[in-house]
Design the sequence.
């Protein structure tokens, strides 16, 4: 292994996680709310901002495009500022010299959401190659199809995509082939300043999308949501700034909940909210996990006794969120009987299980759809269903983190295992989990840098 010691964590397993941690704003909302600030003619104030890599990447991209960013992810810089508060001033976007954008290639999924705001402001946009987790092909065809429908032209270049809006973008009628989160956000961030009405059907309706709509409404946008996945946006001529506290990260909250279950511990997640986690909570209860919902957070714990095997299918909201799947699978290795997991959102999100098998888990992958819901991946050679038989004792191992949630899942497995694990590539976890090592220590985990 050639990685630096700084990117390795030694995890001494076998002890329950006990105590309290706090989750702040959602990784899947905060960077998008930051992009929305580009649409305004006045500064925006975003609160409850976590110090995670995806936020830093978008801060850098915004600065490159002339947005002045004040406020801190760490300590406040001026009196009166809170930590976790950003003030984003887009007054100088038109005069920015966008050099070095290539440095941001492969950094996250977010650059593609700059398209609409930049086309409105500048009439053109350059989008470098995207990053994000390697959990499937992750094409962006829907994004470019909708942008063309608004009137943009797109040219593929060796280092990215170059877009132009020869005239003001026009509202349009769009039907997404699948309720994609990013494409729905693309439509929202483009339609709010387009001329006329946009009607989007088969839209994603994840809580982070609702929160982005709240942000845009605060800026002056006119957006309505029907119960049938239809979103209507009436374009306006200009938008102001916003003042918004980001919704808490339900994905991080569920990760800690799964860690409590797998390690037979008890974790109070300050900031966790029932409303955005209802589907997770139902599943957690079926597995045998206990929780208590308070005004400020949710306590999750293992109540003792055996856990139950379950059948689980991931889906778009309000279904079981795919990003909850990997951490919960670790807990399912401790349940009695056969659990069945059908991953219907990403075709390659079960590859992380081979390392769990090396630790002693029994997880078999299948190409077939093992669930009631036929999905886009059935009969297409993707190992997207799993049968987990448990309970199995886990042993510490050498682990290489494959992606964000897979990485956190390996930490959970290492904490639940007997012996010591050496987890490589842990820096990836900083992409979506704020101060995770400090939180682990606060919960009593025995972790150290080699
Ligand atoms: C930064 C962020 O918010 N990431 C989240 C977002 O990712 P992201 O927005 O990338 O995910 P999408 O909802 O767009 O993708 C869902 C499915 O649609 C497919 N697709 C998507 C776009 C497209 O142009 N063509 C296409 O085929 C994807 O390959 C995937 O199979 O939503 C996912 C689904 O809840 C989450 O797992 C990610 O954590
Ligand atoms: C898949 C994820 O994120 P991204 O879309 O940023 O890769 C995730 O948060 O689990």
Sequence:
């Amino acid at each position: 292994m050639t990685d630096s010691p700084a990117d390795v964590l030694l995890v001494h397993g076998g002890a329950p996680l006990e105590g309290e941690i706090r989750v702040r704003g959602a990784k899947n909302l905060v960077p998008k709310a930051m992009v929305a600030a580009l649409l305004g003619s006045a500064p925006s104030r975003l609160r409850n901002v976590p110090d995670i890599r995806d936020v830093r990447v978008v801060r850098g991209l915004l600065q490159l495009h002339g947005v002045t960013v004040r406020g801190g992810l760490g300590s406040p810089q001026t009196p009166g500022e809170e930590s976790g508060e950003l003030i984003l001033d887009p007054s100088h976007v038109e005069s920015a010299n966008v050099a070095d954008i290539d440095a941001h290639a492969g950094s996250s999924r977010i650059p593609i959401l700059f398209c609409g705001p930049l086309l409105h402001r500048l009439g053109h946009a350059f989008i470098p190659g995207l990053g994000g987790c390697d959990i499937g092909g992750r094409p962006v065809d829907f994004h470019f199809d909708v942008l063309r429908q608004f009137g943009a032209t797109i040219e593929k270049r060796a280092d990215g995509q170059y877009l132009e809006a020869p005239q003001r973008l026009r509202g349009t009628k769009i039907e997404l082939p699948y309720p994609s989160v990013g494409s729905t956000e693309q439509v929202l961030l483009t339609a709010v300043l387009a001329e006329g009405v946009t009607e989007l059907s088969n839209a994603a309706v994840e809580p982070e999308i609702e929160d982005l709509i709240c942000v845009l409404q605060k800026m002056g946008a006119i957006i309505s949501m029907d119960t049938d996945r239809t979103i209507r946006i009436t374009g306006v001529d200009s938008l102001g700034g916003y003042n918004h506290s980001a919704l808490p990260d339900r994905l991080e909250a569920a990760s800690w909940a799964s860690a409590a279950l797998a390690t037979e511990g008890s974790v109070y997640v300050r900031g966790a909210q029932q409303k955005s986690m209802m589907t997770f909570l139902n599943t957690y209860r079926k597995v045998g996990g206990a929780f208590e919902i308070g005004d400020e957070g949710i306590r999750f714990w293992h109540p003792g006794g055996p856990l139950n095997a379950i059948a689980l299918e991931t889906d778009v909201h309000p279904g079981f969120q795919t990003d909850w799947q990997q951490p919960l699978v670790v807990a399912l290795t401790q349940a009695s009987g056969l659990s069945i997991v059908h991953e219907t959102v990403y075709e390659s999100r079960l590859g992380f299980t081979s390392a769990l098998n090396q630790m002693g888990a029994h997880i078999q992958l299948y190409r077939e759809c093992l669930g009631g819901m036929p999905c886009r991946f059935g009969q297409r050679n993707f190992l997207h269903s799993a049968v987990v038989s448990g309970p199995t004792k886990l042993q510490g191992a050498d682990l290489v983190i494959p992606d964000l949630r897979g990485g956190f899942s390996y930490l959970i497995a290492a904490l639940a295992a007997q012996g010591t694990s050496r987890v490589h590539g842990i820096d990836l976890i900083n992409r979506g989990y704020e101060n995770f090592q400090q939180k682990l220590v606060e919960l009593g985990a025995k972790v150290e840098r080699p």
Remarks:
- The longest helix spans residues 207-219.
- Residues 5-23+248-448 form a domain with the UDP-n-acetylglucosamine1-carboxyvinyl-transferase; Chain fold (CATH 3.65.10.10).
